[in-house]
Amino acid sequence: NRVPRIQLDDGHSIPQLGFGVFKVEPTETERIVADALEIGYRHLDTARIYGNEEGVGRAVAASGLPREELFITTKLWNDDQGTQSAFDAFEASLDRLGLEHVDLYLIHWPVPAQDRYVESWRALERIRESGRARSIGVSNFMVPHLERLRDETDVVPAVDQIELHPAHQQPEVVEYAAEHGIAVQSWGPLGQGKYPLLEMPEVTEPAEAHGRTPAQVVIRWHLQRGFIVFPKSNRRERMAENFDVLDFALSEDEMDRITAIERAGRLGPDPQHFG
Ligand code: NAD
């Protein structure tokens, strides 16, 4: 499988293209993840709050794939932030996944109002030391949250998973991450179907020119920007389409046109106030 890997600052590496399971029904997850693995995805992104870790674990076990070929991420939910509560939540996630270790464990949201993300990060540092999460990172952390971790803790997050798609590119976070060796993961990479990204001429014209679909063009844009991306679909043909993006490249002009879509409009909650 030819998916490029991104080198993380902690010495591990991650497949740049994966499969996300937000809003995949728990009862359907095993089948959908089995399809994804059959298509060739080896990087899976789940979270405790998605309620489908068991299904992910069952599909992984049934696949018979060697564990070292897979890269599996899950996340600490807001209510579980703290020290002992984070340890317990992590163990419970591993149990549900049926795994001995995850490749990446993330704090899902900073939740500044409860002011426990620094404490939670120290718990993740210890989880990493135990070897049961190979890498640790954060999600939805903006620059001030990353700065606080830098001031008050020892380990730099390996990744920051943030809302990122052409209309919302978060240049401050991306620049900070580049300066500090934090890899960026794009969530909602296709705009979650919430704005007509796949119908915009900036996307459809290169799609026509390359004989590709608009979704493939947007996924290429993420890959060529250096972001880690894991689009979600319940539909096998779209999963295959989203994975089939490794044999063409957008030109610099095509990239620039898509980048110019930026209009600083987030689709999801504001991380400063969510939770
Ligand atoms: P996405 O941008 O991947 O959009 C998914 C939707 O796009 C699908 O439901 C479908 O309607 C459409 N779609 C998918 N493939 C398509 C195709 N080929 N053609 C046309 N339409 C297509 O949004 P997402 O699922 O929210 O984000 C991806 C992953 O990011 C999630 O599954 C999850 O793993 C992660 N995520 C993380 C957070 C976080 O807070 N950390 C938040 C949201 C999502």
From TrEMBL:
Pfam families documented for this protein: Aldo_ket_red
Q: Where is the signal peptide?
A: none
Sorted alphabetically, which keywords does the UniProt record give? NADP, Oxidoreductase
Family annotation (Gene3D superfamilies):
NADP-dependent oxidoreductase domain
Give all residue intervals belonging to the NADP-dependent oxidoreductase domain.
23-262
Do you know which InterPro entries this protein is assigned to? AKR, Aldo/ket_reductase_CS, NAD(P)_OxRdtase_dom_sf, NADP_OxRdtase_dom
Enumerate the transmembrane spans.
none
Family statement drawn from the similarity comment of this UniProt entry: Belongs to the aldo/keto reductase family.
For this entry, the protein name equals 2,5-diketo-D-gluconic acid reductase
Q: Which organism is it from?
A: Agromyces marinus
